Amino acid sequence: MSENEASKSHASPALSEREVQAWDVETDVVVVGLGATGASAAIEAAEAGAAVHVVERGWRGGGASAESTAQLYLGGGTPLQKACGFDDDPEEMYKYLVASCGPGVDEAKIRQYSDSSVDHYHWLTGHGIHFEPAFVPYEVSTHPGPGQGLSYTGSERAHPFCEIAKPAPRGHTVLKDGKMSGEFMMQVLMAAAQEAGAVIQPDTDGERLVVDASGAVVGLVARFRGERQYLRARRGVVLTTGGFAHNEEMLRRYAPALLGPTSPIGPEIGDDGSGIRMGMGAQGAAVRMDAGCVTLGFAYGHRDNLRGILVNAQGQRYVNEDVYQTNHGQIALLEQKGQVYLIVDDSIYSPPAAGEDDELVSWDVEVAAVAETPEELEAELGMPPRSLSHTLAVYNEFAAKGEDPYFHKESVWLQPLQSPPLAAIDLRVGHTYYALFTLGGLHTTPGGEVMDVEGNIIPGLYAAGRTASGIPAQGYNSGLSLGDCTFSGRMAAASAAKRSA
Amino acid sequence: MSENEASKSHASPALSEREVQAWDVETDVVVVGLGATGASAAIEAAEAGAAVHVVERGWRGGGASAESTAQLYLGGGTPLQKACGFDDDPEEMYKYLVASCGPGVDEAKIRQYSDSSVDHYHWLTGHGIHFEPAFVPYEVSTHPGPGQGLSYTGSERAHPFCEIAKPAPRGHTVLKDGKMSGEFMMQVLMAAAQEAGAVIQPDTDGERLVVDASGAVVGLVARFRGERQYLRARRGVVLTTGGFAHNEEMLRRYAPALLGPTSPIGPEIGDDGSGIRMGMGAQGAAVRMDAGCVTLGFAYGHRDNLRGILVNAQGQRYVNEDVYQTNHGQIALLEQKGQVYLIVDDSIYSPPAAGEDDELVSWDVEVAAVAETPEELEAELGMPPRSLSHTLAVYNEFAAKGEDPYFHKESVWLQPLQSPPLAAIDLRVGHTYYALFTLGGLHTTPGGEVMDVEGNIIPGLYAAGRTASGIPAQGYNSGLSLGDCTFSGRMAAASAAKRSA
Fold it and tell me: What is the Cα–Cα distance from B233 to B212, expressed in whole angstroms?
């Protein structure tokens, strides 16, 4: 008896092997989903000598990774960092990730990831990924421009993180014709998977896992163009179907604070939590299911906006504006109830350039109010008397001296806002874009083995990328998902491939 | 192979009935834990005609309920509300609970609870609970004093809740010799359970559930004074062991934001999540495991403190001070990083009365700074120039007019803070008491039936009180836990008692 048979928040029950009449496919490793995680898993398993069969829901692979900006968070002293003149160290990377990805990080995973990052860089470049050795100067942009492969994609240089770990740029971006291209990155990884010998079967939706009498996972039930298909996995099934940002019922149950005001990223056919639900149906534990990456990219492509100030409904500043856009999304949504504005003056304000072809840069600007004086702007916004006007007066006084005693914004972004008119850009939820993807998922070892609620490893079951809870436990920096996806996909597949058939 | 055999964050695996050689006890309904939930469950099941056996870890029952202030959140027009001259309505109660207990509430449970609240009042008084028909005037205290049975125990009259639902006092307090007494309340409920015929076995720790081949729960493995004991439950097992505030490993895994700065309430022998872990070990799903009630009771017993102002590390006000103490705990800890102070002047400041015998009222006061002027206080606290001094100037200007355009504190609490010296009472985490209990738990129907991750009801398994996720999904008002515990304990036990043996 089910509470609601059709509910998409429920686990997908595993099928007993006894119910399988005949296997349609027999292989060593079945990979479910062909985003960056699945492609990396397929490469790793195939190169380890395993027969690999990848099922992918779409007519071709790519997933959310193909729609991404192709940034991978790597460091510890990669060749790209060195070529651009930066020192980095696995220990500094570890300290930064622990501080910025918490609370409640998996320290063993962050340790493994930081220590292996240079190796992982070589693995990526060895499989056709190229990073252009040019650094995006911090003063120019927090995001890469044409031909620039390295940039800051987190809050490394911002207070308080700059006091916790030595900053280094760790955003490694894949470019195609000088532009960030997740699609191109996926073409390279999918080609490498085929080259390595993985069989890729599109138009196929994973439905349920198949378990033997002991509970070990031995296969997958899938649907291929309307027909049910049974795939036997002699060594293991690797779940790489992404998160659940597109599944409203799962968000409502597990992450209600993220529901409603946010916009899920990635293609709509994906990220419905199918892998997490299949894993749970085979007794996998799900953890940190309330966690999500929420991005408020008010300075994306409009770097001068960092010279403005962010204020809440009481006209108060609440954060140093130069922390990264993923911090901004979480802080604005969860700590300020999504009621925030960016205040700029005429010297900063720039409407989107006409004919802008980067849709991320031609960010929709909704102006909430324009006024000649702070007092008028305050009144226009319905803020209390002496709120925003005081904030501006104090900010300007210190900015003129290159100081921010309130929130310690880096001095390069400090200038008085005193060229009228003043404008309030509307960053309230419902008035701008809060991008969401989920961070919670199956509970895995650093080797990608899925654990049950008792902490036992479920033989034959592996998960990686956003289907698992990984490096970004609660907090996020750009590139961590693709970095974690490609790396954890490899770790899970390596574990599966070496398991006795 | 287990990740860590000794981990207290893992589920406790159920035992197969085949492994049970002989039953030591055979009964209809086994209740695990004897707090308010377990006692109410035992009464309900026994009065429905079931043979009931209660196992309790301690040498007598009581649990966190016995250490509580004995407040039950009831309403909808109870006899006590009427006797004190208040109208209330289940619909207003429903609206308030939905607004204050979210996000992500279980609306069906709140509907059932609001609609049944008057009935539940009669059930309680029918079993010996007495509520003294005297109301604590709001202007005097948000907490009951001697002989006062009814009070506000939430934010009903505070902005913005007062605009969402018609306020009514719903805190129904059990008094003993004029004092709030959870211990007395538990004596009454435990006596009623024995009166109804329930067998109560102390010194007994529930360890694992016993399941039959279909997965239905048929019994309990317990440890009684060092000896293992097998209890057969013909109709069902009701888990009522509280939450997991005393289990650091579970907090780290499921609710890391609540770990560390908070102090768990309730006796240390309880609230280690044993019931949740037993339920998970029998395939029960756990939901909202990140949720907790965090109380910052800065006005408890010091009602004039509501005339002060709460400020953050930047000297900014961030909330109307007259919201309830459970709101304050969550906001201070989760939105203000636990870095807050209460600013009072000499007309408000009162040290704890000498010889105070209510330990909750003789609240420890740590004064962070004292100064003659706002500017000096600001400097003493290390706040930036023109921060707290501005906040005080603006607050005082409007308070003199009986207005709070920033946060809408009720005018009864508004007065300028202008009698030197000024003091900052230290409410930072680590400097005062942030009381914690957890709100996440097993996923149950309104009838207390535990569901698995697929939404299927697990036959024979019931959970209630803080072992389940209930009325307070994320937000909290005092009395909701005892209200929910006693009510949900009854609902679960009624479901168990009527199940076919």
Answer: 12
